[in-house]
Design a protein that fits this description.
The chain is mainly beta. Helices cover 12% and strands 47% of the residues.
Length: 280
Amino acid sequence: MRKLCVMSMLGLVFSALFSTASLAALKIEVSSTPPLPAENFIPNSNFENNMQSWTMLGKPEDMASEGWKVEPASNAYQGKKNALYIKVERKANSRTRGAYQSLSTLFIAGKLVPGKSYVLSCRVNAGKSVKGGGNLGGAGVILSVASADWKQMATIYARTDSTNDKWIKLVSQPLKWPEWGVAGMVVPSISYTEGEAYISDICLSEAYVDLSVKVRGGVISQVLVADETGKTVFDSGSLPGGTKDFSKSISVLSVYKYKVTALDNEGNICEQEYPAGSSK
């Protein structure tokens, strides 16, 4: 009986060593074109320089009498980053309250190109009184594009109703920049509702990158790619037996962090995040 137990223990040790070796045999390489994190076209996106590059919607001297407030807030997002704080009383909820940034310099610099797709994102902490979301108002950021005569317009939204005083990340639908689009602005705000909100990490970037995934070593049985929300954006399914070299290029949204998971034929898992060390 003692001999059997010793042999069993040795078997467990051998199995653990074998599993570790098999796990180490898999190597994942992840890159993208262009690289992540994507370039953010919005200067002072966290209000680290107070209201620099931003213009308030409304006159500051009218805030108290009209029932609204817009101001930078220090260390608002997780105690690390600044944010724009907005408060709207009921008597002031018939308008958009916040700030805006013109995109004219981006046109001049060639950053916004007709035919290319762009995406808007931000982080929001909205109080319990905030209602709406999307094109119905709420708290967050919008991007509006207009023609030279302002007769044609397109808008994308990264807005929400109450987040119960918790920070969440919002992402708009991608916008293919129209040929007639020559003017535009980004607007963090509370629109057509009362309440309080903090808005930070405002980002406007090219919508898509080509994510390149390579897995080598061992025998690879399956490869999956998920974004930071947990949504699977690619699943190889069961790979042919004996696969030891896998590569794939997929188009993904630029605003997320990604995790690549590879399984070997023993059921061991190897994971790699991209971009490495980035924050959610």
